[in-house]
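Sequence in, structure out.
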Amino acid sequence: MAEDIAEPGERREYRMEELARLAGITVRTLRFYRERKLIPPPRREGRIAWYDDHHLARLRTITALLERGHTLNGIAELAEAFDHGRDVGELLGMEAPTEETPVRLTPEELADHFAGQVTPENLAAALDLGYLGVDGEEIVHISRRLLDVSSALVREGIPLAEVLRTGAEVRVHADALADLFATLILRHAPEEAVHRLRPLARSVVDAELSLAMDRRLGRRTD
């Protein structure tokens, strides 16, 4: 992640003053966040409270979410859900049947997928999209396929911020396509047929996208 966070395999701990400095906030703000339970409790050694890289990552994410217009109350609700046992599927909005496989990652493993680009801003964008959730000390990505494709695009030199921005635009079109096919199927078949026929809808979209890419690339080479 950022340069202040330990390298994979290491585990750094910080006193309150150092953590606040690294997170770019005041000690008073840190105490306020702790009282609001926006961050997990520190490890205590006598009268000394020790914080680690998970606290630092959470604080940086809070800052990014605030900058994007989220309220402290909303962030507090997310933090409570993350830390107190809501089902991962519920956190990610996946109570309904899905063909996607969630992936559990440590913060270090996530950083390895997107070396140098797991910034607070990108984390906040991924949380907004629903790509990421947090379950205890683990991060949960909503889809193995999306994780693999996103990391492959980044390895090809496309900035993660642009990948996420494009993902948000694709989401809008995908929702419209899903509505189109669900309406078509429900007009002519029982509701229980929607999940059985969804692979056909996916095949149509895949084929049309392939043809559209052919047309687009053909124009560029003319």
